[in-house]
Structure formats: structure tokens, C-alpha cells
Design brief:
Elements lengths: L3 E3 L2 E10 L2 E7 L1 H4 L2 E8 L4 E4 L17 H14 L5 E5 L12 H4 L4 E4 L1 H7 L5 H7 L3 E3 L5 E4 L4 E8 L10 E7 L4 E5 L4 E7 L2 E4 L1 H12 L6 E4 L11 E2 H10 L1 E2 H9 L3 H6 L1 H10 L4 H13 L3 H14 L4 H14 L2 H14 L8 H17 L1
Parallel strand pairs: 5-6, 6-7, 7-8, 12-15, 14-17
Antiparallel strand pairs: 1-2, 2-3, 3-4, 4-5, 9-10, 10-11, 11-12, 13-14, 15-16
């Protein structure tokens, strides 16, 4: 039986992972068909909560609303489990609701919510101006310097990273939390493994896992385990072994390497012998996401010709996928050919009239952003 239940989300169980370390499981199967989890770290006189995935929404979340009732349940659960140790901090890695779903019940009790200034731009949607004015001192921003919580019994170190160095993080910046006592790294939704997905006969390493690898290499870490916010990528114990990433790099192939191979293809091959490229993609199980990413890499580099050629390959490989035509249309939009762009937008809608991810508004926003990027170079 769940410890507590509210609406569609249940706090399912508590599991002790070590001295002063616990995982709190949420049963979110009613909304997203998988289980999410928070990490609770115990100090001498207080506790710290890392992540609060009451909601499982990610980047597509709009009109953010504080899950206050569920936040109250989290507080009640922690009070039951730790009656003599108050919750002092809630640590968030990024603004997506699967990282932090509630704020007001916490700051109104003097509990500090830790995030970054860039992520707070979205988290602030949870909070009205009067509440912010009253409790803003309980919102802490991690900057370029390490953030730390420490006493004689435990410690947590927060590292802010941004997209300039780590291009695949889900938001403009992001915070990894390192737990020195256990040599664990909390990676939230960043450590992802697709162990059954083979490309060119090898395990494909996700771009997010690439960023995790880059981070631990840069900080000379060798984590014993990674902690994630859902159960998809752990080993059943609630953790993912740090050795897993090492093995992945020894035997697998990165998504970046797969994309680079496409980007290095000669234009004459892409334009004049596209069938051979289509066969290469299909025969080797190259996912559409690699093609799509390659298109946008070309756009960022202002290489519109190659972007168009790869977008065409994507449409040939998967003509029944609406995003193939949306991407194709966006390249034409960047090239100033709005007639062709709108034609392919219509094709996208013919396949899925509910498709709402792209289209003219999104394309124009991207064009303006990329134009600024081109001007800076």
C-alpha cells in the first residue's frame, strides 16, 4: 500500500540506500506509466531532498502550476519518516516538472529551494508576486562557484553547467549534485542508457550520457553510482553502477560519432546518390533522431545546403513521420522559400493534424535565435 496518495500520484515507498541516504518512490503510473523517485540525504540536524518528480512532465510543459497538494504530501511523508529532523533544502537540477513540481509549500515554511537563475525564469511561474516578495530569501541560486551543504555527518556539492560546454543538457543550465560520502553523482534525467538499441552492431550511447561522461572526466570523478529520477535507467536497486558508463564507452558508439559521420558525407553523395545514404541509414539502424540532429547542427553552422540535403534523406527514410516534413519545411523557411516551407507544413498536418511541435511560429523563433548566433561568429 502507498504511504500517501493524492490525485494521480502516490508516494509508494521509502528505501534506505546507505547510512543517511534514502530513495523515496512516487507511483506516477497513472499519468506516465513509470515510477519516479526523489533522493533524501540525512544530516545531523536536518534532511535534504534532491528532486521532486511529482509530475513527470518535461520540456514540453506549459502553464506551470504548483502541485501544492502533492507538495504537502511530500512534507507529511518526510515528517513521518524523520520526526526530529526538519527538511532544510530542496535541490533541483533544472526547471522541468519532473525535477521540481512544487515550491510554495516549501518556501512558505522556510525551506530553501535551490536552483539557478536561468531555471528560475520558468520555476517562477509557480509563484505569485506577493508570495515571492514574502519568501524570496528562501530561493537560492547556484552560480559558477560550487554550491555545498556540509556538516560532520554528510555533504552535498552542486555543480552548475551550461549548454556552451554541455550542449545536450535539457535546459540552458543544469546542476549535478555530488554526494562525496557515497561517491554517488545525482544526474537526474541525464544518465540514459539504451542497452538494447544497437547501431552498427554496437550499443548507442545517448548524447546526455556523453555529457555525463564529459563532466566526470573534467572533474576527475569516478562515481561508484549514478542516481536518476526514474527507474528506467537504474539496475533495479535504485542506482546505476558507475562502471556501466565505462563499459558503454568501451563497447558502444556515441550519437555524436554517428551524427559526425553524416555531417562528413560529401554533398555530391547526399544529393546525387541519396538512395545509397538511405540504405546506409536503414541497414544500420541509424535512428531518425540522428538525422534530425544533424540537420539542426548544419543550421547552427549556417550550412543550409547540407541541412536541406540531410532533411531530404530523413523524409525519404521515414515519409510517414510528421516531424520529417516539419524539419524539411523548416530548412526551406531558413532559406527564405516560404512557399516550399508551407507546402511541407501542410504535408506534416496531413499525416497528423494534431502535430503542434513545429510550424511557422516555431520556425521563425528558431531562425531569429540562429541568426543571432550566426551574427556573433
Amino acid at each position: 500500500m502507498p504511504l500517501f496518495a493524492v490525485a494521480d500520484v502516490k508516494i509508494k515507498s521509502f528505501k534506505k540506500m546507505g547510512d543517511g541516504l534514502y530513495i523515496m518512490y512516487y507511483d506516477t503510473t497513472a499519468t506516465k506509466h513509470y515510477v519516479t523517485k526523489s533522493t533524501v540525504v540525512e544530516f545531523k540536524d536536518f534532511i535534504v531532498l534532491i528532486e521532486m518528480p511529482i509530475s513527470t512532465d518535461g520540456a514540453g510543459a506549459t502553464n506551470l502550476t504548483d502541485h501544492s497538494a502533492e507538495g504537502e504530501v511530500v512534507l507529511a511523508t518526510l515528517k513521518e519518516k524523520f520526526p526530529h529532523k526538519p527538511l532544510k533544502y530542496v535541490l533541483s537540477t533544472h526547471w522541468h516538472p519532473h525535477s521540481i513540481s512544487s515550491v510554495i509549500p516549501f518556501i512558505s515554511r522556510g525551506i530553501t529551494v535551490v536552483t539557478t537563475k536561468k531555471n528560475y525564469k520558468r520555476i517562477s511561474e509557480y509563484i505569485d508576486s506577493a508570495t515571492y516578495a514574502k519568501y524570496s530569501k528562501y530561493i537560492h541560486f547556484v552560480g559558477d562557484e560550487e554550491f555545498s551543504i556540509k556538516d560532520k555527518t554528510n555533504s552535498i556539492i552542486g555543480y552548475r553547467i551550461d549548454r556552451k560546454e554541455y550542449p545536450h543538457i535539457p535546459t540552458e543550465d543544469f546542476v549535478f549534485y555530488y554526494l562525496p560520502k557515497y561517491n554517488f553523482l545525482h544526474t537526474s534525467c541525464m544518465f540514459q542508457r539504451f542497452k538494447d538499441f544497437r547501431v552498427l552492431g554496437k550499443e548507442m550511447i545517448s548524447v546526455r550520457a556523453e555529457d555525463v561522461h564529459q563532466f566526470i572526466e573534467a572533474h576527475k570523478m569516478s562515481p561508484a553510482c549514478f542516481i536518476t529520477t526514474d527507474t528506467w535507467f537504474d539496475d533495479g536497486s535504485g542506482l546505476s553502477s558507475g562502471d556501466t558508463l565505462t563499459v558503454m564507452y568501451q563497447k558502444g558508439i556515441t550519437m555524436t560519432a554517428l551524427e559526425d559521420h553524416l555531417l562528413q558525407m560529401d554533398m555530391s553523395l547526399l544529393e546525387n546518390n541519396s538512395d545509397s545514404v538511405v540504405h546506409y541509414v536503414m541497414d544500420n539502424g541509424i535512428p531518425l533522431s540522428i538525422l534530425n540532429s544533424a540537420v539542426y547542427t548544419c543550421l547552427k553552422k549556417h550550412d543550409l545546403g547540407k541541412a536541406l540535403a540531410i532533411a531530404r534523406i530523413q523524409a525519404l527514410v521515414s515519409p510517414s513521420t510528421p516531424n520529417s516534413w516539419d524539419t524539411y519545411g523548416e530548412v526551406y523557411w531558413f532559406m527564405g522559400d516560404k512557399k516550399m516551407a508551407k507546402h511541407y507544413e501542410k504535408q506534416c498536418k496531413r499525416i497528423d493534424k494534431e502535430f503542434a511541435v513545429g510550424g511557422e511560429g516555431s520556425w521563425q523563433k528558431d531562425l531569429e535565435e540562429y541568426s543571432r548566433m550566426w551574427a556573433e561568429k
